[in-house]
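Before surveying the methods themselves, we first show a specimen of the format, giving the amino acid sequence and backbone structure tokens:

:::
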Amino acid sequence: MLGSLANLSASGTQVLASSGGFLIEPGIGLMVWTLLVFGATMFLLSKLAFPRISEALGRRQKAIEDSIDTAERTRTEAEQILAEYRERLKEARTQSDEIVQRARQAAEAHEHEAKERGQEMLGEAAKRAERDIQAATRRALDDIRKEVADLTIMATEKVTRKTLNDTDQRRLVEEALSELDFSGLSSGAPQS
């Protein structure tokens, strides 16, 4: 059938081509055959090609819709993750602020404690120094008393030109020491 249609169409074309007016005056037979061939082609295409094309387009549309859905889900998940990240970052900042505040408080407490310890150590050192000074003053006063006693004995022996016995020496030393006022030396005030 197709072969005869092609032969018929070719012979019609030769007849029209030989007359030369086929472009200006269309032939009814040619139009009919063109419409029949066009209809047959459309029928074959609608049965064979168009369903496959439609199916491919449908698959492509479904794949695009799936991709859009996946992208939307991914975007929603990313927004949730970002919100969680921001919340955790906010919590971390709050915790870091608390840690810094506690560290400051601890540093201030340590500083205050160190100052108190320093004051205590300074007080203890001052008390120790005062005790040492008092002990050194007592030793110095004792040394001075002994020196005065020795000088008194020597002076008495030179004045009297005789050696004194132990009882006389003690009596003279005690009299000399009782006349001297050592209280001014121990307090640091000048003697009058």
Notes: The first helix runs from residue 2 to 19. The chain has one domain: 29-187. The mean pLDDT is 82.
